[in-house]
Amino acid sequence: MGKGDKKTKRGKINRGTFGSRRPRIKKKPSVEKKISVTGKAMPK
């Protein structure tokens, strides 16, 4: 179990691949997309 092992996290890092042991980190949606920049606040 080490750098040469395909199934371990260390082995995935060494090979530069992804899998169930080392999933890709998904980008979170930016704040600008959540809040409309052009829309003005509604008056009460």
UniProtKB/TrEMBL annotation:
Phylogenetic placement of the source organism: Bacteria, Pseudomonadati, Bacteroidota, Flavobacteriia, Flavobacteriales
InterPro entries: Ribosomal_bTHX, Ribosomal_bTHX/bTHXc/bTHXm
Basic residues compositional bias, start-end: 1-13
Protein name listed in UniProt: 30S ribosomal protein THX
Chain residue ranges for the region called Disordered: 1-44
Top-level taxon of origin: Bacteria
GO CC term, one of those recorded: ribonucleoprotein complex
Key words of the record: Ribonucleoprotein, Ribosomal protein
Keyword Nucleotide-binding listed: no
Membership in a protein family: Belongs to the bacterial ribosomal protein bTHX family.
